[in-house]
Specification:
There is one protein chain. By secondary structure, the chain is an all-alpha fold. The model has no long low-confidence stretch (mean pLDDT 84). It has two domains: 46 residues, Arc Repressor Mutant, subunit A (Orthogonal Bundle); 139 residues, Tetracycline Repressor, domain 2, CATH 1.10.357. It is built from eleven helices and no strands.
Length: 199
């Protein structure tokens, strides 16, 4: 399969999967979006599940590589958290429907995301151990590290998942104003998480 055909299938599948999730997407819709015959999709990917896994891995592998690189770098835990915030918000701004996609797939089959994390070299327990070590050495507040991770994810994910409502209620449905708010939010979340974890 030439690269152009592969890119066309991936981009079309990504758009449909992100909008409709794994269960709601249909191979015929993806084929129509890509401007090709459905049989061609089945020929190359065999099933919707295989195509979904390929798209899912492709979407998140770059993000997970950045996270892995950050975690293995020789910077402090605080700097790692700051880098994670930047990387996450940048990923979502470039792929605005990804949060709904993630939530949908977590509810459908959380093992897919868990396995992808491990395949990318990210082990959640190691992240907790890293934070726990910082707690023990007095560099972070004496919190259960799970509170840090879950609070951080909540602060990052919710504004994107709830965007349609928040944009309508607080920004008069002004997309550009909400985009500016999300850009400001990087610094707000960094400041909030740093205060939250101060020893």
């Amino acid at each position: 399969m030439d690269r152009t055909t592969e890119e066309k299938i991936y981009e079309s599948a990504r758009r449909i999967f992100i909008l409709k999730g794994m269960e709601g997407a249909r191979m015929q819709e993806i084929a129509d979006e890509a401007g090709m015959n459905k049989a061609l999709l089945h020929y190359y990917f065999r099933s919707k599940e295989n195509l979904f896994k390929a798209v899912f891995k492709d979407t998140f592998s770059k993000f997970f590589v950045k996270v892995k690189d950050t975690l293995s770098s020789e910077v402090s835990a605080k700097e790692k958290l700051i880098a994670f915030i930047d990387n996450y918000i940048n990923l979502i701004q470039a792929n605005p429907y990804v949060p709904q996609f993630i939530i949908s797939e977590i509810n459908r089959d959380p093992k897919v995301l868990k396995n992808l994390m491990f395949e990318s070299g990210i082990e959640p327990q190691k992240i907790l151990d890293l934070l726990l070590n910082e707690v023990h050495t007095g560099n972070l507040s004496k919190l259960d590290p799970r509170h840090i991770v879950i609070s951080l994810l909540g602060m990052l994910v919710f504004p994107f998942v709830a965007r349609p409502l928040l944009q309508m209620v607080y920004f008069n449905d002004d997309r550009e104003a909400y985009d500016r708010f999300l850009n400001e939010r990087k610094e707000v979340v960094k400041n909030m998480i740093l205060k939250f974890i101060e020893a």
